[in-house]
Amino acid sequence: MDKIKAVLFDLDGTLIDSEYFYFKNWAPILKDEFNLVISYEDWIRDFAGHTLAHNVKRLVDDYGYDTTEEYMWKRTRAAYADSNMSDIELMPDAREILTFLKESGIHIGLVTSSFRSTVDTVLGKHGLLDYFEFFVTRECVEFPKPNPEPYRLALTNLNLAADSCVAIEDTITGSKSALGAGMRLIAVTKQEIERARLTAVDNIVENLSEAKALLSQWI
Question: Which of 67, 106, 141, 176 could form a disulfide linkage to 101, CB 3.0–4.6 angstroms apart?
Fold first, then answer.
């Protein structure tokens, strides 16, 4: 196996501990608007790791609710603003793995379905923006994850072969995107629901410390 030259990180659930933040903001909206009560386990199974467009389509097609992406964008963004997104904490060992890669001379990029405003707010609060050479955010692509477009754009930015780059993801949605772009992949999740979906992934670890140990063998 050739040595790797770049590592591309997902954001939500991978570098930042954001899924409960999104759940606690979406759950009251779903209850108020549609009388739909969901648990955190429901959120992880049905909504986490997907774009707003995907989740709205699910509400319309699978649940039969009358809503639009524009309306849910306004409702959720207002909720996020009231909840203070800057309170979102890093995942354990996020700073450590980024520091390790930077000191090892590895290119680092961020590939996320979140918008740049979220990236700037959360990673800026933790002082991590300078670790990344570039950001592929929702505004950058026509087709977000699980489409390979975000990772293909990242590879274009790097001007590197796909097999010399590793993606770090926590969901099947992001994993499909990275694998579709021909990249190596490490999936990082403790969620049993998500781990059961990752049947096509060879490298599944529980945390970023384990991901760092695996990367150290490839550098």
Answer: 106
